[in-house]
Specification:
5 helices; four-stranded mixed beta sheet; 15% strand; 33% helix; single chain; elongated; alpha/beta
């Protein structure tokens, strides 16, 4: 993708000597990425050996990305390092609020969560967060008393604001 773009502009990255030189490049729009995400994967990798995944789509435009096994290993190592830096030792549970469907989308009554016993991680569905369900979310999170939250801002904000309105700390 970039070679084609740069060739059309007569841009050679070896000629970049100042930050202002980069201003010649057009801004990448998500639509180009969504149209053909394989064009953004390095030719050094065999696409058949890569894992594909999607971003959350909180902006309304989820994007497909490709990763190799080593990428996942680095992410997990980084996350574990961050936990240690912040003094999180895994003594208590973690709450993860994400965009994975945890319970069927038509579910209207709790529980809207499941417990991953292997990692002591409580998985909550972002899809079920609403004014009607906030009390059940806050009640369960207070009961769990997690050491850590792993959440998208869009999910945790509504829950945290509701907890504060209720006087939870």
């Amino acid at each position: 993708y970039y070679r084609e773009q740069w060739a059309g502009l007569g841009f050679d990255p070896r000629d970049v000597t100042r930050l202002t030189d980069i201003r010649q490049l057009p801004i990448l729009e998500k639509d180009a990425l969504k149209e053909d995400p394989t064009r953004f994967a390095s030719e050094e990798y065999d696409l058949a050996k890569l894992f594909s995944g999607n971003t959350s789509g909180t902006t309304g435009k989820p994007v497909t990305t490709f990763k190799d096994k080593g990428c996942y290993q680095r992410v997990w190592a980084y996350q574990e390092r961050q936990r240690r830096i912040w003094g999180l030792g895994g003594e208590r549970a973690r709450v993860s609020i994400g965009v994975r469907p945890i319970v069927p989308s038509d579910e209207r009554k709790p529980p809207f969560w499941r417990h991953d016993w292997s990692e002591d991680d409580w998985l909550f569905s972002n899809f079920h967060v609403s004014e009607e369900t906030l009390d059940s979310y806050v009640d369960k999170i207070v009961e769990i008393n997690p050491e850590e939250f792993n959440a998208y801002p869009s999910g945790i904000y509504l829950i945290a604001a509701h907890a504060l309105r209720r006087g939870e700390t």
